[in-house]
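User: I'm writing a short report section on ligand binding and want a predicted complex to refer to. Could you take this sequence and adenosine-5'-triphosphate and write out the structure as tokens? A short remark afterwards would be nice.
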Amino acid sequence: MSEPRIITGIDIGTANIRTLITEVSEDGRPTFLGYGTAPAAGLRRGVVINMEKTVQSISKSVEEAEIMASAHLDSTVAGIAGDHIRSINSHGVIAVSRSDNEIGERDVNKAIEAAGAIAIPADREIVHVLPQEYTIDEQSGIKNPIGMTGVRLEVEVHIVTAAITSAKNIYRSLERCEIGVEHLVLQSLAASYAAINDSEADMGVVLIDIGGDLTDVAVFYDGSIRHTGVVPLGGKNVTNDIAIGLRTSVDQAEHLKTGYGSALTSLVDADDMMEVPGMMGRKSRTLSRNVLASIIEPRMEEIISLAAREIKKANSPDTLAAGVILTGGGAMLPGTVELAEQILDMPVKLGVPAGIEDLPETMKRPDYATVLGLVNFGFKHGPGVEVKKGGLKGLFRKFEKWISNNF
Ligand SMILES: Nc1ncnc2c1ncn2[C@@H]1O[C@H](COP(=O)(O)OP(=O)(O)OP(=O)(O)O)[C@@H](O)[C@H]1O
Ligand SMILES: [Mg+2]
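Assistant: Sure. The structure tokens for the complex follow:
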């Protein structure tokens, strides 16, 4: 019997590094094997600023997942994010190659390649060239042109680029952990693979992922991704505002936010009280939760209003009828859905990630969407090309594992 296929994802977030290991079961679905997490250290806004600390965080998260899964991870689907990410839409045209004018996979790849051949600054690299729709001769709006006939094939694509140094440092950090990269995937695109279904993408939908340092926005309509953008603010800004506003430590502020916070002041009763621990020997105080919410609300309002600007940039021809899906830990703050509905004037719901079998109930949460989506991406697009291989030590680890499995 052949070895079961292992698919793994590592979400290198600005707050948490999450590792998910799955195995493709007999019925052909990725099935949960193990999960690990570690606080993200050495990264700022998705960019590696301290390689040593990043490597330690990744290793901790991976080891935890490997122990739970009793499986070794030597290559992965990794997420990339950061305010260095840029995206544009482009267009490619080719002449159909076969004499009988039937369009084959080669033509489609050539058209996508032509669309991706754009001038980009020397310090940037292309992460994705995502086809949106095809036109054969004059007929537009075609989703899959393979097998159709025509003379001229055109494709509209969404191109995502990243700063070369930022992408390289992610490869290098993973390489230092002896992990090869099969695909590097934009985090918001990954989250969409877990939290958005095909009919929502057809109707028009927005994904807003509120993470630690960043909020990612992705707009989909007519079944394809149309715009991606990054807001350089997230849940950590909310925590910092609380720490300053209530003169308490960042750790205490985080504790107050997750325990008593609300994104909407109007949802909190003014008589509802909480205890704020004092700093540096000062006494603790009792404060109204309403005060806490009044610190949180303006920052959440700012984040969502900046996300709204990104949605506008998509120039969607129709209303995005499937509304907004919120993912990321920052979206778990009570009142965020209601606040987003007020600001965006669209239906809003929390994204519950799906697609992995035997997933523990505790992982069906918006902040797991990206890592689950990375695995779903790997499942859909196959093992891919290893962008960077693990070092020689990786081979030793494999050999060790082979020995322990066989003797
Ligand atoms: N229950 C909760 N209520 C409010 N905020 C929460 C809750 N749980 C997590 N958060 C916040 O979510 C943020 C982290 O979210 P997440 O884990 O999605 O970030 P990340 O994926 O590491 O970051 P990014 O996506 O920006 O790279 C933190 O700021 C944290 O305070
Ligand atoms: Mg994230």
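A remark for your report: Confidence is low (pLDDT under 50) at residues 387-407. Residues 289-313 form the longest helix (25 residues).
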